Amino acid sequence: MSPPLIFALCPLLLCIVWHVFRRLYLSFALHNVPGPPSDSFTAGNLARLHGPDNASFHEHLEKDFNGVVRIHALLGNSQLYISDPVALHSVLIKDRECYEASSIFLSLSELLFGKGLLSTTGHEHRRYRKIMMPAFSASNLREMVPILYEVAYRLRDGLIQPQLKHCRKGKQEVDFYPILSRASLESIGRAALGHSFDSLSCTESATIQIDPYVQALKSFTPIIHKLAAFLPLLPIACKVVSPAFCRRALRFLPSKTIAVFCDIIDIMETKSRALVQDKMQKVRSDHNDDSRDVMSSWVKNMKAEEENMKFTEDELVAHASMIIHAGTDTTSSALNRIIHVLALNPEVQTKLRAEIMQTKELMSYDDLVGLPYLDAVVRETLRLYPPVTGMTRTSTQPHTLPLSPTHHRGTEIYISIIGVNRNEAVWGPDAREFRPERWRNGYGQAAPEGANVRTAGVYGNMMTFAGGGRSCIGFKFVPLQLKVVISVLLRRYKFSIDGIDDRIIEWKMGSPAEPKVDGCSALPIVVEALEHCSP
């Protein structure tokens, strides 16, 4: 190794050593907090905490400890695991100035997408939210309903119905995972960017598989998981050099995985910039443009007189990539889950279909919001089976949480979304059961024996869309999309697992959760065409 290279790497190596010893010091403050024993010095409990088969480990933490647990992390470090609603309210609401998104999340987001909502804190983050939120208002969502219906009809007629044409008994096994993934991308693309990625036709499956942008999206999350062991080094590197420099420097590392990672970033940025520039040109050339997609709203806002209340082109590009990545996989996970839940619960499916059949086929926003049982089924599915099961925060100053001693600045905190969503203190002793009847007027009532406890969640007292200043800005859009798809499909089809052993369908926890059959992503469901369906 040449002397200049050694000299250049010295600051980074010193930062790593300082970081490791500082983490060990922070961990000492948590030594009295109860928790499971470490699985190894190298990785602690992290493999079980973040692994795809970690459901039993999370259940162990939630049932056998008091809601604030010590978790062993890398190289002997420790972090807090929180599923207690009172402690969670302190982190996200009451004492939110003491906590921020983790440095790994912030650095990775800026590396992937650039400066934007996910990669900033404080005033910058609040500015981005203030600009973005009007595009997700109820008035704007009302205008998106026809777009969502169009995609749902194309999903039904282009991807599901052709598979039932030649079945003799009126039933056909259909793998919903790939078709709902395609429909989710198309729905997000149309509603968020005003762009169609997919005609949702069976004949185009081969074309879709080789599309560079779609392939980049499919490869995005798996690549991040492969690089998980190196992510703790990212914030350290970004303190020495800028994220933009890190992004360029990664190209010179001798790793095929990192090379693919860089290719994915480049493909996504190139496509997003082309979409943004096309949208900007369209809005500027057509003064009567009435497009109501999210990107059109942001581009039109660039005419605002207040300089601080509009996006630059680079910021639009960053948020175009962010919204497609953040929205597509999570929406697909939620759609797959609700189809599976309906197939497993035929009495719920029958009751829900009866409610839907009493309405007109093309419902308005108010019609969809006003169906109580549809709302209950969607909320209960999102509560019991959140697509993303956890998130992280870092303390920005010394603080004392309920049920734990004072911890130092820099302490990592894992917030268990699924733990809060299934907490018996919030939802009653049947918290782990699927019971849509618990929902009344958008609020989840605990079972008679349970106590009603408020959480920090922004949607229905659950944590599926997080809470506080960094809650998901699409928390109204996702339920609306689920309602449109379900209302369209249940009019024509009955879903079941007849002839399918439901035990072979395993849901793997992750970001997001997804169904697996024999290790491959799949959701086989038996679909039966109904005689009373509309032509």
Automatic annotation (TrEMBL):
Cofactor(s) listed in the protein's UniProt record: heme
GO cellular component, one term: membrane
Pfam family, one: p450
InterPro entries, sorted: Cyt_P450, Cyt_P450_E_grp-I, Cyt_P450_sf, Cytochrome_P450_monoxygenase
GO MF annotation: an example: iron ion binding
Localisation per UniProt entry: Membrane
Pathway note: Secondary metabolite biosynthesis; terpenoid biosynthesis
Alphabetically ordered keywords of this record: Heme, Iron, Membrane, Metal-binding, Monooxygenase, Oxidoreductase, Transmembrane, Transmembrane helix
Residues where heme binds: C472
Gene3D superfamilies attached to this UniProt entry: Cytochrome P450
Main location: membrane
Family stated for the protein in its record: Belongs to the cytochrome P450 family.
Record-given protein name: Cytochrome P450
Taxonomic source organism: Favolaschia claudopus
